[in-house]
Every structure is written in structure tokens, then in C-alpha cells.
Amino acid sequence: AQSVAQPEDQVNVAEGNPLTVKCTYSVSGNPYLFWYVQYPNRGLQFLLKYITGDNLVKGSYGFEAEFNKSQTSFHLKKPSALVSDSALYFCAVRAMDTGRRALTFGSGTRLQVQP
Amino acid sequence: DTGVSQDPRHKITKRGQNVTFRCDPISEHNRLYWYRQTLGQGPEFLTYFQNEAQLEKSRLLSDRFSAERPKGSFSTLEIQRTEQGDSAMYLCASSSLGDLDKGQPQHFGDGTRLSIL
Fold first, then answer.
1. Which residue does chain A place closest to B39, by CA atoms?
2. Rounded distance between C-alpha atoms, residue B33 and residue A18, angstroms
3. pLDDT digits (tens, 9 = 90+) for B98-108
4. What is the pLDDT along chain A (115 residues), one digit of tens a residue?
5. What percentage of residues in chain B have a pLDDT greater than 90?
6. Per-residue pLDDT tens digits for A26-59
7. Closest alpha carbon within chain B to A4
8. A43 → closest Cβ in B45, B102, B109
9. To probe the interface with A, which of B108, B112, B113, B114 has the most A CB atoms within 10 Å?
């Protein structure tokens, strides 16, 4: 079975400060990892993914994420937060090489960026 | 790239009625997924198609739920005899063509919000 934990329901940060949204995962074998963002009454927008290779992956809108295999974590980061980054963020995982395509999502973290 | 399109955006119906939702994936995508999202939760996987073949089904997909993708293009999700617990956002996603699994991301539509009275 695969699972994702997002330990913080909400993260508050001041505009211009760095932000981190935490994610840990559990999967059999090697993972594919994803971050998505959701705005009110909208679907999920893809931000970035980790497949293999460099542990630091860069994505859309200045976001990046760091894969740590030993800690089974994939934290989302941004050096300087914008008010427009305020949204709901989801981490997702699926196992590599199983043929299964279903993503397992965390429960989400609400990011509030204060001006 | 016109994105994943879902119709309707909102559906209000009485308990016991049948409802059907439609999803049009990104045109060159051969994989299509349905998820359900309840308030305050992440999306939960329901089912997955590769072309017209339904390859994965979640245990969440009870006998009252049926999904089709008859020509490998658009898909429909039908819920029969709706119950209060079916109230949720139903999300469709698609991902690109490719025989090799390279972790292609799934691209989501804006969903159909179902409310059961």
C-alpha cells in the first residue's frame, strides 16, 4: 500500500519570506512523487515531479522540491513567497514499475501568505 | 492544449436519482482517470482507462458507480441511486501517450461538484 502524510493543515508565511510545505510518503519500491496546487472551486494544477536523478527538482512558478530517500520526504519549497501563492497544496505518490497508475494524495496543506 | 474539460460543473439532485458526468481529456492523451474529492481531503482514486480499456478500479467504486470510455476519447461516470455520501467533487485527469512509464503527470479538469439533497 502507498500513503502520503502532510503533517501541517496550514502554513502561514509573510510575503517575501521562504516557505516550506512538508510531505512524507510510504511506497513499495521507488516512488514517483508529485506536487499539485488547488485554487478554490478549481481542479489541481501540476507543479513539479520527481522521477529519478537530482534530488532537487524545479517546477512552475518558482517552486522546487527536495527528495530525501532516507527520510522518505519530498518537501515543497520556494525562496520568496507571494500573496498569490496562497492556495491548497497536495503531495502525491505512486510506485514505479508496478504498472499501476493510481496516485495517492495527502490530505493537503493550506498555504496562507500574508502581505 | 485546451486542457481537461468536465461537464457539468455543478449538479444538484435528489437522493435516489441517477447522475452522469462527462470528461473530455487533453486530445493527445490516451490515459484517463477519475478521482473523488470530499471537503478537506485530498483526491481519492476511483478508476483509470488506457484508451477504451478500464485497467484499474478502486474499492471505492461500488456497484452503483460505472465508468465508460467507449471510443478511447471522452469518458462518462454514472452514479445510480445516489446517496448523501456521494456528495463530493468528481475530478477527471488525463496523462500523455507513451508505452514506457516515465512518471507522466496527470492533468486535472476543474471537476463536477455533486450535491445530494
1. A107
2. 34
3. 656 677 889 99
4. 899 999 999 999 999 999 999 999 999 888 999 999 999 888 999 999 998 888 999 999 999 999 999 999 999 999 999 999 999 999 999 988 777 889 999 999 999 999 9
5. 79
6. 998 889 999 999 998 889 999 999 988 889 999 9
7. B42
8. B109
9. B108
Q: Domain containing A67 — which CATH number? A: 2.60.40.10
Q: By residue range, what is the domain housing residue A19?
A: 3-114
Domain count, chain A: 1
Going from the C-alpha of B15 to that of each of A63, B75, B83, B114, the distances in angstroms are: 43, 24, 5, 11
SS3 B26: coil
Which of A4, A103, A108 has the CB atom closest to B106's CB atom? A103
Is A46's CB within 8 Å of B107's CB? yes
Supply the pLDDT for residue B98. Answer: 66
CB pair distance less than 8 Å for A45 and B48: no
Mapping DSSP to helix (H, G, I), strand (E, B) and coil, where does residue B65 land?
strand
Q: Does B57 touch chain A (CB under 8 A)?
A: no
How many angstroms separate the Cα of B77 from the Cα of each of B27, B33, B62, B71?
19, 11, 12, 15
